[in-house]
Each structure stands twice: as structure tokens, then as C-alpha cells.
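Final report, closing paragraph on structural work. Over the funding period we assembled a curated collection of sequence-structure pairs, and we close with a single example.
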Amino acid sequence: MSPMTRREFIAASASSLVVASIPQALAQTANRASAKPWYATMRRCGQINYNEIDPLTIDPHAWMDYWASLKIDAVLLNGGGIEAMYPTEVPFHHRSAFLGSRDLFGEMAAAARQRNIRVVARMDPTYVFEEALNAHPEWIQRDPDGTPRVRPECPWLIKTCMFTTYFTEQMPAIYREINQRYNPDGFFTNAWPSAGALDVCFCPTCQKIYRDQTGGAPPAAADARSYAYRRYYDIYMERVAQIWKLWDSVAKENNPGSVYVGNLGGGIRTVKDLKKISEVAAWFNADNQGRAGDHPIWGEAQQGRVARAVMGGGAVTNVLGAYSNSSTLWRHSAKPDAENTL
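Its predicted structure, as stored:
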């Protein structure tokens, strides 16, 4: 049988009614219709960020025994986006080079559910590998001279543009594939939309959108004093809301109790319109992994106040890293117990 094209896969995945391959999924789905969604009553949620080589040695049951000992309600597991941790069939969805014959996401999800832990697929829509760039150059963010933007510490990763079909077609195709195989309780996107400064992209799609809606060109820089930037900001936030609603609707296709949750944070330093995001978000996941030497001790509490203020009683969680957050030791050493407790 000849391999499917990306367009054929998207069409097939959008219309398929295949249910999750995990046996407990059907029974769990029937029990999810309650007065409050499951994430609104969650007390603890864990997260594992794999290294790319982890498929060679990682033990799902050992990890889930650990999480069960902490009495967590749900766990975020790396699914895909930049890199698939399962045997994906979506064209240009890069598989981990160390995955081999394993289905790491499926194994971890099954081990979690055996311990009554809910599963949220952790995704990343912000970068792709070179094969995606070559096949779909229109997906990529560009500098003013047209150069594709790459991740500085990983120059083999190329940054995607949220105004392109990568966000409206490719990522939904990946979500649907995971939905059909594993029926997760939700999807989370690392690094998107974030609460940091806006990316000003100069790809042909962005230039056309800006030309059609403002009669000009994308602003040269993120400068709030510029009318062009402020207009771009409005367009940008509308797109964030549009994508958020789309991804949440895809998450719910197999399971109405499922949810999409984006990555937010920044507290009072955010430059994104959190109030607008709260109008489409059911769950505010604040990315506040820890503090470096120049961050105040009350930073996490301040983040919580901002999140609760905009969510008006909706679900709020805070991301706490078990690793050091200082610039020198970033993620290369464990955080002291006293800092974690604090």
C-alpha cells in the first residue's frame, strides 16, 4: 500500500470514529459527565519531560508507581508536536530517533490508567525538523529577509508560525491521531501561547494578513508605542483565541470531558491579554517553574493571584520544576528541598 499524503491523512483522521486502544478508555469516558469537569477538582498534577534517548531505557511502571505514591490526579506525558513519542503516521510528524518499535506514550498512558491517574498529552507546536521545512516552507516563521527562524541552542529545529496551516491542519491531525489511539483526558501545549513578548513574523502568510487587515506591513519590532505594533497585537490575540477554541473542539471530538490547555505564565509581567484568553480557556496552567536569584520569594503567589483573577473561579494550576532555575545550573541539577517546599 502506498504511503498516505499529509492531506489524505488529515481527511481520514478528521472523519474517523476509531476509539482509543486503551481498554479502560470507554468505561472512563462514560463516567466523566459530572457537575464539574475533572480538572476543576484536581489537587495534584505531575509532568515528565523525556530526554530524546529515554525510549531506550525508561520504565513506565516505575514512573507511575512514583506518581501514584504522590497521590497525583493526572500526569502530563510527552506526546508529540516537535517529536513524536509514539509510532505516528502523520506526515512530517518527526518520530524520536530512539523510539524504535516502542510506543512510549501508549505504554506510559496505560501504566498511568492502571493506577487511576488521568492522562494529558503534552504537545509542542512551536518547532519542526528540516523535513517539514522542506515539504511545507509556508509553515515557518521568517525574519524580514526571509530567513527561517531556528532555535539558537538547537539550530536543527525551525520555528513554526501560528498564522499558518501548521496550527489549523497539521496540529489538529496529530491531536486526532492521539485521540483515536489513546483517548487522553486532555492536551497541553508547551511554550504556546506563553505570556511573553509577541513574535513578529515576516512569512508570506503574515505579510498578507497584515496587508489585508491594516493596509501595511508587520511592525519591525515589538514596540508598544507603535500603532502598527498595537494593531498587530489585536490581530495576534484574535488568532490565539481562534486556535485555542479550535484545539479545544478537537480535544473533545472523542471525549466531551477532554480539554485543551495552553501554557501561560508571567504574572503581572505578561504582555499577552490574559483576560481575553480566559474567555476561551477552561484551565489556566501557569508556567512558573521556579525562581532565579533576582526573582522575589512571593513570585509564585503573585502568579496565582493573577491567574485566579482572570479565570473567575476556573481551574488554575502552577508548574513547579524539581530542577534548579538559575542560569548556570538550568535543569542540570536538582532544586534544594527547602526551595521546593517554599
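The two ends are 58 Å apart (CA to CA). The CA atoms of residues 177 and 275 lie 31 Å apart. We thank the funder for supporting this effort.
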